[in-house]
Amino acid sequence: MAAGVLQLGQFSQTAGTLSLHGGNVECANLQIGGGVLKGSRSVVGSVTQTGGQIQPGDSGIGTLTITGSFTQSAPGALHLELGGRVAGTQHDQLVVNGAATLGGGVSGLIVNGFLPLLAEQLTVIRYASRTGALNWTPFSAGSGRKMSPLAYTTEARLLTGLDPVQFANWAQATGLTGPDALPDADPDRDGLTNRLEYGLYRFPQTPDIQGGTPPALTGSPARLQITYNRINDATDLDIDVEASTDIQTWETIARSHLGTPTADIGGKTFSIIETPFANHTQVTVVDQFLPGPGQPRRFLRVRVTGL
Ligand SMILES: [Ca+2]
Ligand SMILES: [Ca+2]
User: Fold this and answer.
1) β 223-231/280-287 pair status
2) Closest Cα to residue 235, out of 265, 260, 262?
3) Contact criterion met (CB below 8 Å) for 21 and 1
4) How far is the CA of 122 from the centre of ligand 1 (A)?
5) Closest ligand to 202 CA?
6) What SS3 state is found at 76?
7) Could you tell me the sign of the dihedral formed by the alpha carbons of 180, 186, 192, 195, in that order?
8) Alpha-carbon distance 261 to 89, whole Å?
9) How far is the CA of 260 from the centre of ligand 2 (A)?
10) Average of per-residue pLDDT across 194-217
11) Domain spans of the chain?
């Protein structure tokens, strides 16, 4: 429709396209089981999507508003054009004034040569509240990048990650070029080489005070523990925790090999806790060794090898 208001008591679409070009549609409960709902205007009412696609924007990028609630289930999907960082003008956005129940899919199309940086977040849905679990899978954003959907209390975002997770893709997606993009370079001069910044999911153009939380005593009797981040799914790195009693001889007590979960080596750890996030995992390794009168000193470090 090009203008005005389309008033519907109840409408169920199974195919075709409902395009809100210049006007709104008023419908207590708009049901999308197939076809396409698109536009930059408002649905005055609630939308239940069980199939088909919702595409914010008319022929390009825009914001589609639902004044009531939005309930989505598979195979219903949202299709988004992503051409920049500003919602509504550079990338598509769905605004739900009521409650959102999310459970369908999302697909994305990068337009206008947009190359999101690593860990960049785009808010693609806003809502008053959310229930249900996201059932969305990451999709490719080209040039060694992927977008992973994240859901929060009042909005859903897309987060840029790497695909595949390799150093060269990381260097490009963090904006490094030339000699600054080499594994041993330290362009932000924080003492962490790019190899460490990559493996420990730090940012190579932002000085980090340290590579992680320094080793600290925990529990009773007290053992040393160390906490750090590791980048998920790395295809080219091992990330080890090493221990020493004299800072000269080090032994590996835990290892993540090529992106696998951190595992004990030789029964030398007391516990390993991994907390996953979209692009990285927070790791806490507690040493098995108990410092005592005969051996009062113990040291832990994280070592990144490969590349
Ligand atoms: Ca650095
Ligand atoms: Ca840094």
Assistant:
1) antiparallel
2) 260
3) yes
4) 26
5) 2
6) coil
7) positive
8) 40
9) 24
10) 86
11) 4-162, 213-306
